[in-house]
């Protein structure tokens, strides 16, 4: 049992339902929600949107447009259109279908942090419809400032700026990095990727000549160290790195076990699993600021180059869909690096709207609707199940400090 003796009695959670307002780690009483709030990052949908969108993403940091244009070329390569909005439209529709199939009468509202439809407008829409209790699903699975707390700060900011903080309440489902529904598509991707590598590379020694590269978005090392509550003692990489490491091990173990169950691969029984490494991508800070490493391209160039590696599986473990960082940084840059080094490579799937993933998100909603006991909540690592109400001091942005955040205890 987690030690919570350091939490001050009587702390209130901003804009929370009564069941979550005093900050339990897990809410184990039923809550009557009126709607689900699908909270996305947002993305441009045309060339003219790119720079305004990037201004939104970097608001408050004073980055001039000429520097934003250095990033804009990724979007311009794809016609100025990020795939993320269409992906969220598809996810919204898939959630609605899954809810309907289970007889759950909860509408799904969709709002973005950085582009239309904006969270402010969606929260106003909720209030206009009389939806007072919202349960948010953020489209990010792990714990860090940008993947959790920033969403929570945006919820608090929106409730304040709209004047609805006493009218609309926003709770949030737990981070779902180790929920079976999120993990399952990665298991299938690695299993099938290994099978394809074997089929297309004659005489491949899986134990020595294959590398499974689990890739996620790099973040500043100082932010990583503060991801998750400090009393968990995750070390330098914080909860962010620890969660990814734990999930990667589970994915590879399960994928390998399922591969060996296939009759055509029974000759692999008794051999070692392929090597794997957690690698990072998409860093955007100045060179003077340490970010989590190794970069996926650097790792291939500096560690794998020269053998014995012949094949690499690139697994986008940190991402829920094929958005820009996957399509550019992995499908373009990392795949190009692998080809230059003479490696056979494949990029495995993200969850997207995989039925297991969609069903898992609905399961997370029903945990809160039904007040499911913590002991009955599925999780595939020893780190979870994660908190319904984030702990004090969780996931600080070291440069900006703490701002008010919903769905968690202050600060």
Automatic annotation (TrEMBL):
A Gene Ontology molecular function term of the record: lyase activity
Q: Which InterPro entries match?
A: Ferrochelatase, Ferrochelatase_C, Ferrochelatase_N
What Gene3D superfamilies does the annotation carry?
Answer: 3.40.50.1400
EC numbers listed for it are 4.99.1.9
- Show which residues constitute the signal peptide: none
Q: Which residues bind Fe-coproporphyrin III?
A: 82, 151
Q: In which pathway does it act?
A: Porphyrin-containing compound metabolism; protoheme biosynthesis
Per the record, the domain of life is Bacteria
| Residues bound to Fe(2+) | 217, 325
Reaction(s) this enzyme catalyzes, per UniProt: Fe-coproporphyrin III + 2 H(+) = coproporphyrin III + Fe(2+)
Keywords noted in UniProt: Cytoplasm, Heme biosynthesis, Iron, Lyase, Metal-binding, Porphyrin biosynthesis
- What Pfam families does its record include? Ferrochelatase
Keyword Iron belongs to the record: yes
Q: Where in the cell is it found?
A: Cytoplasm
Question: Record's family?
Answer: Belongs to the ferrochelatase family.
Biological role: Involved in coproporphyrin-dependent heme b biosynthesis. Catalyzes the insertion of ferrous iron into coproporphyrin III to form Fe-coproporphyrin III.
What is the protein named?
Coproporphyrin III ferrochelatase
Q: Which organism is it from?
A: Curtobacterium pusillum
Supply the source organism's classification: Bacteria, Bacillati, Actinomycetota, Actinomycetes, Micrococcales
